[in-house]
Design a protein that fits this description.
The chain has 15 helices and 17 strands. By secondary structure, it is of the alpha/beta class. The strands form five sheets. It has a six-stranded parallel β-sheet with strand order 8-7-10-12-14-15, with helices on both faces. The protein has a four-stranded antiparallel β-sheet with strand order 2-3-1-4, with helices on one face. Strands 6-17-16 form a three-stranded antiparallel β-sheet, with helices on one face. The chain has three domains: 95 residues; 73 residues, 2-Layer Sandwich (Alpha-Beta Plaits); 304 residues, Rossmann fold, CATH 3.40.50.200. The relative contact order is 0.11. Helix 1 runs antiparallel to helix 4 and helix 10 runs parallel beside helix 11. Helix content is 37%, strand content 16%.
Amino acid sequence: MILYNILIFTFGFWNIFKKHKSLSPILGFSFMASFAFWVFSILNSSNRIDAKMLEGFIVLLGLSLLGFILISLSKNKIAQIGAVIMSVAGLNLYVTNPHSTINRDIKMDTKAELIIKLDHDRSSEVISELRNFSFIEGVNPLLKPKEAETTQIDDFHTVNINDAYDINLAISEITQLSGVDWIEPNEILKLEPIASTLKNEKTNFSNSVNDPMADTQWNMEALNMQDYYPLFEKSKYQPVKTAKLFILDSGVNPKHEDIGTNFQRHKSNDVNANESDENGHGTHCAGVASAISNNGKGIASMSPGNQWVTVSSVKVMNKFGYGTQASIVEGIIEAVDAGADVISMSLGGRSNQIKEEAYNEALQYAEDRNVIIIAAAGNNAGDASKIVPANSEIVITVTALDKSLNKAQFSNYITNTNYGIAAPGTSIPSPWKGGKYATLDGTSMAAPHVSGLVAVMKSLNPQLTTKQAFDILDKTGTNTKANHLTGRMINPTKAIRSMK
């Protein structure tokens, strides 16, 4: 943000004083130096050109052009300087205050329509002022993390607006309060599993395990899992620790015959909710990642056993598949504080905002504690960089492949994400609600393949970071029919072998 301002100022003043013999070279050099430093800082942090970097270039170019035009139209130096200041002010408005209004088509939680961030030193005072507004029916903090002193999550609160009051008018009035740093809608998200219509053909993978549905698991054959399981029978591959994989979803049924002993309970405000799943989506994802393999029941998974990986649940979506931004943010905090090594998020939605401060703060809280987050790319057949949390720079984003290793028709592409990878995502059988099994399509099914594998990698190397995990997956991965859209498909055997 500071560099943006410097760039606009120096560019503008350089044009104003371009005929000045002394100032022009100094200002020109300052602009070029700050521009080079800005580009270097972005490349140094991401090692690639991504959507956010391109957005930055576009913003800089657009505002610089506006300033240049205004400067050129006026011969008055004061007016020219004013044009530069206006450009900088416009940039700050664009970056820091994206919600002068909210699209009425955005569906928000009727019990807590807004998420706001308060000035930490003034939060009590501001909350008192908020409660004095007649249209506000409640102000509540998000879940407080264990290490609150290291994050700003405890500065975020949900606000319940009276249903009869206009939401944009409410935002306008709340914005006027000094100490309100950010406002965003508490959007409602929905799980949208796709029932598979394709019939799976018998696979050779069934010769490797005794699970009865293995002969329909084309996904495991594509991942060469027949060579994966034998790796863990050799003494050179031993877990340094048991990795904790958390599924953030509609809950997980630990009583399912193919999950049972791989499930681990954790302390929670709502244990019963976490350990139930009336929707089925969360149980399906847990099964793909960590069903009990080779137990003569159901399917085989990415897990070689519960001495390597345990699976836990945080319920952030209800039985109808609905959840909110706030519930997911709180779910991330709960999982991190419960000791998660990997968090699997087969959920999300189209981003209706320039940025999501609460999400970003929660994801950063996880990243700072070396928790790797895997997110589904989304099923919109579009750009995953428009989907939250798949668009975060610190998560591994997963596209879905079909049996031909093409990008599945419904799958978003990962071209503009930071860590994009692929896994099978069509006709995937796995545990379902009511002790049953279901075969589904979706990036929701692709993501837990990666989550399960990364959890095993974390059991071998507990210090493994997100970037290190992605680099391994990418370097050892198998080319698809469209690498530029999907990233490489994970190759579990090669990934594990690379860690010896």
